Amino acid sequence: MEISTVPATFVRALLEAAERKGCRRTELLSSLNIGEDMLEGDRARVPSTTYSQLTDLIATQLGDEYCGLVDQPAKPGTFAMMCYACIHCPTLGKFLQRTTEFHTISTDNSRVELKIQGKLAHYVYTPLAGTVDPQHLLTMSLLAIAHRLASWVIGQNLPLTSVSLTHPRPEHAAAYNMLYRCPVKFDQAENSISFSASYLEFPVKQNEQSLQQFLSRPGARMLASSDSHDSHVARVTALIIGSVDQDFPDFDWIAIQLHTTTGTLRRRLRDEGTSYQQLKDDVRRDTAIFNLNKGVMSIEDVAASVGFAEPTSFFRAFKRWTGVTPRAYIRKGK
After folding, report:
1. Which position among 58, 81, 142, 312 has the lowest Cβ density within 10 Å, counted as fewest Cβ atoms?
2. Are strands 110-117 and 184-185 parallel, antiparallel or unpaired?
């Protein structure tokens, strides 16, 4: 069951790019049953499945895998062809280097490089003339997909040491930490994901058959749900998600299950951009939005499904999470 959500600012950025390329905003929203005012506010959230569907719809209408965020479109199939061109490389380093070469000949709107500095490797993305991305959605997405792809290629999570971004810290900065599961630095000299250079020698464990299955997953879904199953965020979430309709386990119990101390676990979660309280709120928020969007449960039942015995307490919490009440959220979706 997919219950994750994404900030509405990402949806607004997609819609603005699509409009610049001639798509009709109202038609896009209507086809996915999204109310315009559902996207208002800094705390507004939409289901990740909705975001994924919108991405696919815009890419199809425009014939552009970049969804209108650059002047020069990427024809459908470009990403898949890059993967097929690189899948037979023996190591992750060779794989990533070949992706940079493919990128160079397929677009003039950006440049990607693989840099090695001491014990760290840096996968660097540089937008060039022709990129229209004021919300930096393309930068964020391409670096995240590069990380997901690299992790999949070696058959395990590639732990990032940090992410650097050239733009100022946005209001939704927490979403970046949750996306990359590592410290994120803004106002930096370049856009990059950084990791131990030792991983460049890891063998490529995939082939054309497994690649076909991997490519069947929407790219936007990769952004919504991190493949970092061994991250501390993923491991803690797995331990608490079954308790969303009741009291969550105490933090000491969580630390014991993960064979660590509470202090160490707090630091690990902080490095991945969150806290135990934030994770509990995220699980409840996303589950509540999921249940509200199904349209088959009363608000009282939705409240109970995420552990609130009193609907009034749920109303206050939901407004704190999203900026609107549950009733307003339902109206906005219509």
Report:
1. 312
2. unpaired
CA-to-CA separations, 207 to 43, 84, 86, 158, 214, in angstroms, rounded? 41, 9, 10, 18, 10
pLDDT value of position 63: 96
CA atoms within 13 A on the CB side of 178: 19
Tokens of 143: 């670096």
User: CA 94 to CA 307: how far, in whole Å?
Assistant: 49
pTM here is 0.79
Return the closest-CA partner of residue 187 out of 164, 214, 220, 153. 164
Cα–Cα nearest to 225, from 321, 143, 306, 148? 148
User: Higher confidence at residue 33 or residue 252?
Assistant: 252
Q: Following CA atoms 104, 64, 149, 214 in sequence, which dihedral angle do they give, to the nearest 10 degrees?
A: -130
Task: Write out the H or E segment, with its range, that includes residue 174.
Answer: helix 173-180
Closest to 23 in 3D by CA, of 81, 53, 67, 66:
67
DSSP 8-class letter at 158: -
Tokens for 263, please give them.
Answer: 């202090």
Closest to 143 in 3D by CA, of 86, 174, 88, 181: 181
Q: What's phi and psi for 41, nearest 5 deg? A: 95, 150
Q: Which residues does residue 195 pair with via DSSP β-bridges, in sequence order?
A: 121
For 65, the enclosing helix (H) or strand (E) is none
DSSP designation for 91: B
Residue 187 CA to its chain's centroid (Å): 21
Angle 181-17-282 from CA coordinates, rounded to 5°: 30
Which residues are bridge partners to 193 per DSSP? 123, 163
CB 100 within 8 A of CB 113: yes
